[in-house]
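Box S1 | Example of a co-folding query
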Amino acid sequence: MNYKIPLYKPSISQKEILRVNECLRSTWISSKGRYIDNFEKLFSKYTKIKYSTVVVNGTAALHLALLALDIKSGDEVIVPTFTYVASVNAIKYVNAKPIFIDSDLNDWQLSINEIEKKITKKTKAIICPHIYGQMTNMTKLIKIKKKHKLFLIEDCAEALGSFFKSKHAGKYSDISTFSFYGSKTITTGEGGMLCSDNKSLITKAIKIKLQGISSKKLSYWHDVIGYNYKMTNICAAIGLSQLETIKKILQDKRKIFLYYKKHLENCPLKFQVENHNSINSFWLVGCLTTNKRTRDQLMKYLKMKKIETRPGFYPINTMPMYKNYNNKKFKISKQLSGRIICFPSYPNLTKKDLNFICGTIKKFFKK
Ligand SMILES: Cc1ncc(COP(=O)(O)O)c(C=O)c1O
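Box S1 (continued) | Returned holo structure for pyridoxal-5'-phosphate
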């Protein structure tokens, strides 16, 4: 479908083009080169997380995070069912068991009150994805993590530019992951970052990302089974250029959220809240409709007018490969899945585009 206004479009400037061309001309096109180093350094400077290492995508970052924490068969990992499938698949990659919990109807994040009910002797970690750029109450989450001596992984794929109590997403956990897919706040095409304040965790993850290479011998000696999860210098050149403009990207995204909120205030739509003490990056602007039927009809109507939207995630426990874990109905996740609609949210949206989208939504509700 050729949309007049897509859900997302990365903003690529002349800087990205010049740097990619420079990589090509200099032949530094593979996974070595100065842009990798520069991108990692700037990322750590921006997030204030000590160590950052680039990877091939956000899913690989999650896999490495679990491997670095030595999570394995017999271990349980608590994760919300309302998330992107990668947060859960990574748990299965290391043969551990995902233990699903429900989410909160207001902020759409994992329901903190449910975590302790699910902790057993086998529980090793919690994965906390910050859905659509909002963060949960990290003070409460850290309290539970410490009390039960669990690892915490923040899945920040959707949360670059999100803060809780002035600390950037990813700073609260043992290890955190980011995605730079084309529709993310900054992009490298495909790509990701793994971050931690813990040097030994990052050192272990880097070793696994580099095919399990040994530091004790000369090249080509590998003493564990690793993966090839490296990012290219070309991708890092794009990522660095994007990250240099993050402030402007985030300002534009906040303006877009405020525009929707103001112009749709009389429509029966409930916007995702921005929690107390937090800054939402507004990666995607999302609303709850009153019911699933209205959401589906609104999506259909907007599609007809060539405006792309996105529904909430399907709860992961309802998918075929996780059916065996479906021992409970997750009422809120089911509602979020059926009632959420996300509107176009890319920084280059013009006032004219926004006016057209809001006008079309208002027309739908007047029908
Ligand atoms: C919450 C969440 N986790 C993980 C990922 C995986 O990232 P990637 O697509 O870069 O593998 C995504 C990206 O789509 C995501 O939204």
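The domain at 246-366 is CATH 3.90.1150.10 (Aspartate Aminotransferase, domain 1). Residues 104 and 111 are 5 Å apart (CA to CA).
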